[in-house]
Design a protein that fits this description.
Belongs to the GMC oxidoreductase family. With 229 residues, the protein is an alpha+beta fold. The protein has helices at residues 45-52, 56-67, 111-127, 130-133, 155-165, 217-228, and strands at residues 15-19, 30-37, 71-78, 86-88, 99-101. Helix 1 crosses helix 2 and helix 3 (111-127) packs across helix 5. The chain binds flavin-adenine dinucleotide (FAD).
């Protein structure tokens, strides 16, 4: 009500932007998740390493930059990646954890990497706008040893940094894809019944044939709601 206090902001993701880096459609192909850390508020380095999968150096880069300045982390997400992950059984033991291979940037034409690069160029342009310049922003260079030999902010530098820093946003789908029986890859029919097995339905995010261009929680609830009716 008063726009202050603990519940007045999310403290995690303060701003989200959906853009189309190719300007070829009204639909977004990239989401930019923005996290604002007030001076000295970046949580512990180990926490970031554990949850986001950063290297120690990159987490430390956030931490150091935030010691005396607020920082704004702008994290692009490629919404409809062409690369496909894979999930396999480890063994015949049903309790054994599966093998999960995300296979980031494995698409043949390398389109995912280029879309990421376009997203970073968009962020650079955004930071160069008058509104942003009022706040005297500085682009922080994290320590990414493998990219050291490349000119900072060149295309090749960003491609290298993207490959080193990419992580998950925890929206896996598609392992029990819904589709027509003759599709070859479909696991459940449009009423979510498992093909070939009677009286079993799968009702969760896994039935989305491909990833949607947004977050998956509300759509998962919608799938549950529809199946339950
Ligand atoms: C860290 C994280 C952050 C996320 N943030 C967001 C966000 O901000 N916004 C958003 O839209 N989405 C977010 N998501 C994604 C969202 O949570 C998922 O897409 C959604 O929960 C998927 O729903 P689901 O029903 O398919 O699976 P789940 O929610 O994973 O439900 C599966 C359920 O099955 C149970 N289960 C597993 N095995 C068995 C078994 N053998 N027997 C009985 N029960 C079992 C599990 O305990 C669990 O309760 C996030 C996910 C994670 C992991």
């Amino acid at each position: 009500m008063h726009r202050n206090g603990v519940y007045s902001e999310s403290y995690i993701v303060n701003m989200i932007g959906f853009i189309n880096t190719k300007n070829d459609s009204i639909y977004q192909n990239v989401e930019i998740v923005t996290v604002f850390y007030d001076t000295g508020s970046f949580s512990s380095v180990t926490e970031q390493v554990r949850t986001v999968g950063y290297t120690d150096e990159v987490a430390r880069g956030h931490y150091d930059a935030n010691k005396e300045n607020p920082i704004m982390g702008m994290y692009p997400t490629v919404l409809n990646p062409k690369s496909r992950g894979e999930i396999l059984l480890r063994s015949k033991d049903p309790k054994a954890k599966p093998l999960i291979y995300p296979h980031y940037f494995s698409d043949e034409k390398g389109e995912d990497l280029e879309t990421f690069l376009e997203a970073i160029r968009f962020v650079e342009q955004l930071v160069a706008t008058e509104e942003f310049r009022k706040h005297e922003p500085q682009l922080v260079r994290f320590e990414i040893p493998i990219c050291d030999g490349l000119a900072f902010r060149s295309d090749d530098y960003w491609r290298c940094a993207i490959k080193q820093m990419t992580s998950t946003i925890y929206h896996p789908v598609g392992t029990c894809a819904m589709g027509p029986e003759n599709d070859g890859k479909a696991v459940v029919d449009p009423r979510l019944r498992l093909y070939g097995v009677k009286n079993v339905r799968v009702v969760d995010a896994s039935i989305m044939p491909t990833i949607i261009s947004a977050h998956t929680n509300a759509p998962s609830m919608m799938i549950g709601h529809k199946a339950g009716r």
